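Quick one: structure for this chain?
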Amino acid sequence: MTANIDDKLIDQARSKLYTAVLSDTLDAFGFHEQATHPSIRPLDDTLVLCGRARTGLYMEIHHDDPAVNIYEKEIDLVDDLKPGDVAVFACSGNLRIAPWGELSSTAAHTCGASGCVTDGLVRDVRSIRAMGFPVYSDGIGPFDTRHRGMMMKPMSRRASVGSRSKAAIWSSGMSTVWSSFQKKSQQTSSPRPWKRSRLKT
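Got it. Here's what it folds into:
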């Protein structure tokens, strides 16, 4: 289940599906928490974001150790992005850092990545919008991660948000598709009654 996700499937999802339909389908199969908080918004809501999530976890810091390169893990993750990957940077609600900006967008775009999602801030928004690179964030701010936060755990494999399979993210909000949903859908002949998600997209 965690192996390769067919690029054709992702292309079809990108062109034919949207967040509300995906969220309703996940609701029907009993997955009611597959949408992000409504405060996480796109820089450009005309762009569609869909792909495999590549996740990294940040921790808050209040000083720099001269012997530690705080950018090393995030640079390694961005440089390792593959076509169709979505960089997902978890900042645990730390709005003191903007882990994503023009340089990371340029590098990710060059790698063929599909976009970025973070619950931190994003900076250099004018340049990112100009290049048409899809980015979701919890706000806009100029703050570098130096003195404020560092990535502590990049995931070595492609993963969905909070799981180990695939992420599907659309322009009007975000929903994640887990391998467990795929497995359950194959085992269930008829879905549960339709339910409204508590998280609106």
